[in-house]
Amino acid sequence: MTDAPAAKPAPAAKPAPAAKPATPPAAPAPEPTGDYAMLRDAHGADVTKYEVLADGSGVLTVTPEGLLAVASEAKAMGYQVLSLLSAYDRTDHFGVLYAFVKPAGTPEQFGELRLRVTMPKKNAAGEAVEPEVPSLVPVFQGADWQEREMYDMYGIRFLGHPDLRRMFLPDGWTGWPMRKDYKEPEQYVAMRDGEDIVVKTPEEGAW
Fold first, then answer.
1. In percent, how much of the chain has pLDDT > 90?
2. Exposed e or buried b for every residue in 161-191, given b needs 16+ CB within 10 A?
3. Cβ contacts of residue 169 below 8 Å, gap of 6+?
4. How far apart are CA 38 and CA 121, in angstroms?
5. What ranges do the domains of the chain cover?
6. Containing H/E element for 111?
7. By the 8 A CB rule, do 94 and 154 touch?
8. Degrees (nearest 5) of the Cα angle 133, 95, 120?
9. Could you report the per-residue pLDDT of 93-146, keeping only the tens digit for each?
10. What are the DSSP calls for 87-110, one per residue?
11. Which of 31, 115, 148, 203 is 20–30 Å from 95 (CA)?
12. 181: pLDDT strictly greater than 80
């Protein structure tokens, strides 16, 4: 008589998967205060966003159409100096960032205010468009060369600028070096008659 095979033990029950921690609710968008709030309230149709940057500074995003009005009011509020005008290129838009300073006799009275303008790379029909924004030269004369530099590097057209032309590169240069899609073209700079000229080969620039 053979022994009956031993019964196989029942498989151990798998432990229930641990419950995923609940996703914490998104932090509410920051609300502007002080002069930022005053500008937002006075130009609500032209102010599309308020955010706090990594350095703790606030910034209002305004439409290109509303930039002159908002910047003019900022100047009337005491922000007399345009201390920064910089541009950037993102995947879907170009942007220009402005910083204004309020001169003061004491640290407590000193102030800085930042604005941003964004320009999509495509219109509603999906067609590529070039970035354009009003010039601030009529309000802040110090914007003159800063806008020329951003035009030279990014090709952003500052409408109403009194003398919008390249600042570092010769007038005949092709392309905008700080754009993401910029490719170094086969062109060179030569000196002729006391001026820089753009040529296709070094030989063209020879005397």
1. 64
2. beebeeeebeeebeebeebeeeeeeebeebe
3. 152, 177, 189
4. 31
5. 34-165, 169-207
6. strand 111-120
7. yes
8. 80
9. 999 999 999 998 888 888 999 999 999 999 999 999 999 999 999 999 999 999
10. EEE-SSEEEEEEEEEE--SSTTT-
11. 31
12. yes
Nearest of 113, 116, 92 to residue 102 by alpha carbon: 113
How far the first Cα of the chain sits from its last, in Å, is: 114
- Structural tokens at position 45: 């149709």
Model confidence, pTM: 0.79
* Closest to 69 measured CA to CA, from 96, 97, 39: 39
- The residues, any chain, with a CB within 8 Å of residue 25's CB and separated by 6 or more, are none
In which residue are the tokens 């599309």 written? 48
Domain 34-165 belongs in CATH node 3.10.310.10: no
Residue whose structure tokens are 């005053």: 38
Distance CA 78, CA 76 (A): 5
CA distances in angstroms from 61 to 4, 46, 51, 65, 116, listed in the order given? 82, 8, 8, 12, 5
Q: Which two tokens stand for residue 25?
A: 């609710």
